[in-house]
């Protein structure tokens, strides 16, 4: 265990934890857009910047990546920290002016309109990579990834086309902070809409109640990886027992 101070409050924490985790455990709010406790931190959004002082040296760091240490002094609301957060959210608002979550966060940080607008079509993806990390680390299929560099960076499926390994689970949509990915079940089909591709998945019909309840590809994947007989999914969860 180490002792550190966050906003003047003395905190105890396990060494491998990050400042963001310890702040959250102690009820101290730090804004984030690219953090999710189920996946490894990525440091994409930079909204979680805080000031740390260690051995007399002051620095601004991303709290989702920075590990706690004995004697660390953390300040989450300095003028410099707030300036960085405002600049970050101004850029995100310019990129994604239609994203409600970005608009709300911008408003909270005192930014009400974008400093400039992009000529290309508006979209909602902030390139946080939460969808790709969940797909890879939690689901285990890596159906999507971030491609290209700099201003051409995009979240995409291979060749911007139907991803052959995607199982249609929709985890990417659940985790996306800006709702840049959506999915809906229409009749016997799940439709997942991403910024550059729309994919359709056939849903499995319950042999008892007739309801379409999960993508066939997802059920085949679960059966294969968990060693479950495919027939176990002939009946939907509501009709079991
Ligand atoms: S689609 Fe959503 S989760 Fe994926 S990178 Fe873009 S904003 Fe992040
Ligand atoms: S939450 Fe730390 S960089 Fe996004």
Proportion in helices: 10-25%
Count of DSSP H/I helices? 6
Attached small molecules: iron/sulfur cluster, FE2/S2 (inorganic) cluster
Structural class: alpha+beta
Q: What is the radius of gyration? A: 21 Å
Largest sheet: 5 strands, mixed
How much of the sequence lies in strands comes to: 15-25%
- Total DSSP E strands: 11
Q: What string gives the helices and strands in order?
A: EEHEEEHHHEEHEEEEH
> What's the mean pLDDT score?
94
Low-confidence spans: none
Principal-axis shape: globular
Euclidean distance between termini CA atoms: 47 Å
Strand order of the largest sheet: 2-1-5-3-4
Note the main attributes of this structure.
binds FE2/S2 (inorganic) cluster, 241 residues, four-stranded antiparallel sheet, single chain, globular, binds iron/sulfur cluster, five-stranded mixed sheet, alpha+beta, 11 strands
């Amino acid at each position: 265990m180490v002792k550190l101070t966050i906003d003047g409050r003395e905190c105890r924490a396990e060494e491998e934890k990050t400042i963001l985790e310890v702040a959250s455990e102690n009820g101290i709010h730090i804004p984030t857009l690219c953090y999710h406790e189920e996946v490894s931190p990525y440091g994409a959004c930079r909204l979680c910047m805080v000031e740390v002082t260690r051995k007399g040296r002051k620095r601004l760091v991303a709290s989702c990546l920075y590990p706690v240490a004995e004697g660390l002094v953390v300040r989450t609301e300095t003028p410099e920290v707030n300036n960085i957060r405002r600049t970050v959210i101004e850029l995100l608002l310019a990129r994604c002016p239609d994203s409600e979550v970005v608009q709300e966060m911008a408003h909270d940080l005192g930014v009400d309109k974008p400093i400039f607008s992009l000529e290309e079509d508006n979209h909602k993806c902030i390139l946080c990579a939460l969808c790709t990390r969940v797909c890879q680390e939690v689901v285990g299929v890596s159906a999507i990834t971030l491609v290209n560099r700099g201003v051409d960076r995009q979240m995409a499926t291979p060749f911007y086309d139907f991803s052959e390994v995607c199982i249609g689970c929709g985890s990417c949509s659940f985790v996306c902070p800006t709702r840049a990915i959506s999915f809906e079940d229409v009749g016997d089909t799940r439709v997942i809409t991403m910024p550059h591709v729309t994919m359709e998945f056939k849903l499995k019909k319950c042999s008892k109640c007739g309801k379409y309840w999960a993508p066939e590809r997802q059920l085949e994947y679960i059966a294969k990886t968990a060693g479950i007989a495919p027939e176990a999914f002939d009946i939907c969860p509501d009709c079991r027992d």
